[in-house]
Amino acid sequence: MERLSQRRTDPVTGERYHTTFRPAPTPEIQARLRQNPKDEEENIKKRLDIYYSNVKALEDFYQDAFYVNADQDPYVIFEFIESCIIKPLPCK
Which segments does the entry list as coiled coil (predicted)? Predict the structure, then answer.
């Protein structure tokens, strides 16, 4: 929620900022930042509710899908995905 709800865009330059992780460099830029309506907490909660109501059906449909831990170095993630495509692990 924090990551999505604190995103902002500068309407002049199109540059994207985050109020915590990448704040605007000057008060002038900070004053003109705008939040996309999709990033308001209420709308994020609605999207998450829809996601969680559909996730089981998606898991059932994509039974052959593999889990990717994306909380790693991008090169490690790429290597893992590539290995799953080239030499898939045997089915359970």
Answer: none
Determine the distance from the C-alpha atom of residue 81 to the mean position of all C-alpha atoms in its chain, rounded to a whole number. Answer: 18
- The conformation of residue 34, written as its DSSP 8-state character, comes to B
The burial of 8, by beta-carbon neighbours within 10 Å (0-12 exposed, 13-18 middle, 19 or more buried), is given as buried
The CATH architecture to which 1-85 belongs is 3-Layer(aba) Sandwich (3.40)
For residue 88, give the DSSP letter. Answer: P
CA–CA separation, 88 and 34 (whole Å): 45
The mean pLDDT of 53-74, rounded to a whole number, is 88
Convert the pLDDT of each residue in 39-63 to its tens digit.
999 999 999 999 999 998 988 898 8
DSSP state, 89?
P
